[in-house]
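Notes for week 9. Today we move from apo structures to complexes. The key idea is that a small molecule is not decoration. When we ask for a structure prediction with zinc ion present, the ligand SMILES becomes part of the input, just like the chain. The input block below holds both the sequence and the ligand string. Read it once before you look at the output, and try to guess where the molecule might sit.
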Amino acid sequence: MDEVIARVAQAIAAAERILVITGAGLSADSGLPTYRGLGGLYNGHTAEGLPIEAALSGPMLQRDPALCWKYLAELGKACLGAQANAGHHAIAELQRRKPGCWLLTQNIDGYHRAAGSPMERVIEIHGELAPLYCQSCGAVDPELSEHLKRPLPPRCRQCAGVLRPPVVLFEEMLPEQAIARLYAELRQGFEVVLSVGTSASFPYIVEPVLRTRQAGGLCVEINPDSTDLSALVEVHLAGRALDVLPKLLSHI
Ligand SMILES: [Zn+2]
């Protein structure tokens, strides 16, 4: 594998336009449960007998905010209880060295921000868990961890409206601005795409890979397991991001 890593590193070193795509597998290396989008913390159903996709949906947040928040709080505690790992730090370092390196993440834990990725080149396609904001008056509230210790749902200090995280719940639209940025960058094209710890069932993950390959670029997957994407990339580095990314960076 070391020879392949050296070859990929060479391609990255020579490239200006690079896209790193990250998913739950990267955060799993930090000890977060592997979840698919918001749902996989649970196997199928909640204690209330609902599919987790229904509990963590936009309509449920409106209909029964306490129930939705019960599961948002579990996500929040899991994310606050872990931290960025060597994989996040390697990506941030790559972005510092390469001003044309963009990051598209499905993760909502905020670890890329914590690791120092330049946020003007980070596209958070599923949003983030913090800071909370008021659904009624829009006030921003940075105290996620404090709210998780109190009765749910968390309420706005100013108007007592229900707070929510800037995250994409099930049945909600992807953030328009994030999509627009992604497609604007895709039109400019990428020479290398690195897909890290994602199973890639969404079009906005598959499309950058397909477009880059069509244009003659190099697509690389870093994942201990085979995924839907494995057949679409030229190189599959079967390892954990935590191990592979720092190795890759040491060659650049
Ligand atoms: Zn309010």
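Confidence is low (pLDDT under 50) at residues 36-40.
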